[in-house]
Amino acid sequence: MSPSNLSQSIIYTALKFFSEHIINNMASPSGASSGSSQLQNSGSESSLQQIMDQRKRKRMISNRESARRSRMRKQKHLDDLMGQVGQLKNESNHIVTNMNITTQLYLNAEAENSVLRARMAELTHRLQSLNEIINCLNSAGRCTELYETEDDQMINCDEFLNPWNLLYVNQPIMASADVFM
C-alpha cells in the first residue's frame, strides 16, 4: 500500500470512528432512536464520503497543477539550454572564423618573410661580393709598381684601375698596316 493510500485509509477510519462516536452520543440512552441513528449514520457516511471525494479531487487537481508547473519549469530550462547552445555555436563559429583569418594572415606573413629572407640572402651575397671587389681594388690601388703596356708605355697602377686616367683612352686609335693586307 502506498503512503498516500495508507494516510487516506487512516483518515477515513478516524473520521468514521469519530462520526459514529458523535452519532452514538447524540442518540438517546433509551435506544428508541436507533432507526434515526441508522439514518444519521448513513447520512454521515455519505457526507464523509463526499468530503473524502472532495479532498481526493482537490489533491488530484493540486497534483495536476504541480505536474503542469513542473513541465513548464522543465520546458523553460530546456529552452534556456537550447538558447545557450545557440549562443555557444555562434561564439564557436566566430572563434573559428577568427582562427581562419589569423591563420591566413600568419601564412601570408610567413610567405612574405620567406621572400624577404631570400632577398636578404641575395643582397648579403651581393654586398659581400662588392666588398671583395672594393677590397681587391683598394689593395691593387696601393701598388706602386709600374706595368709596361704593349705600346711600350709605362702606366701607374692607379691609372690602370681608374678608367678616367687611362693613357690609351685619350690617344687616337691607329691601325697597323698588317691589318689591311
UniProtKB/TrEMBL annotation:
Pfam families: bZIP_1 (PF00170)
Principal localisation: nucleus
GO molecular function, one term: DNA binding
Coiled-coil zones: 106-140
Location(s) in or outside the cell: Nucleus
Record field: compositional bias (Low complexity): 29-50
InterPro entries hit by this protein: bZIP, bZIP_plant_GBF1, bZIP_sf
SMART domains named among the record's database cross-references: BRLZ
Domain of life: Eukaryota
GO cellular component term, pick one: nucleus
Annotated stretches, region: Disordered: 29-75
S-adenosyl-L-methionine among keywords: no
Boundaries of every BZIP domain copy: 53-95
Keyword Transmembrane helix: no
UniProt entry keywords in alphabetical sequence: Coiled coil, DNA-binding, Nucleus, Transcription, Transcription regulation
Protein name: BZIP domain-containing protein
Source species of the chain: Ilex paraguariensis (yerba mate)
